[in-house]
Specification:
Largest sheet: 2 strands, parallel
Number of domains: 2
Helix content: 40-55%
Order of helices and strands: EHEHHH
Structural class: mainly alpha
Amino acid sequence: MKTILMISDQSPEAAHAGRFALELARAARADLLLAYTVPATPIRKTQLVPAGNLDEPDELAYWTDALEVDEATLRGAIQAVGFGAGDVRDYLKWRQAATAAS
């Protein structure tokens, strides 16, 4: 069985390539498998706190320094709100404000 894979990014050029792939598949009596891509959303290092990597000294040092907390506070914040750096930052600010108010 012959199969031609055509990957499209939904651009005009890909539409042209798709028509060509269809003609080629017909001529070769092959199956045509179509796939399309979507733009990737880059994840910056500050978007997620990689909890599994906090065992790495460099990662732990980066996050404790970036968030200005010690290891126990960082791990507690992650346990409380998850791995989103924004959520962790918000939690730490809330916790700091709550501590200052008492």
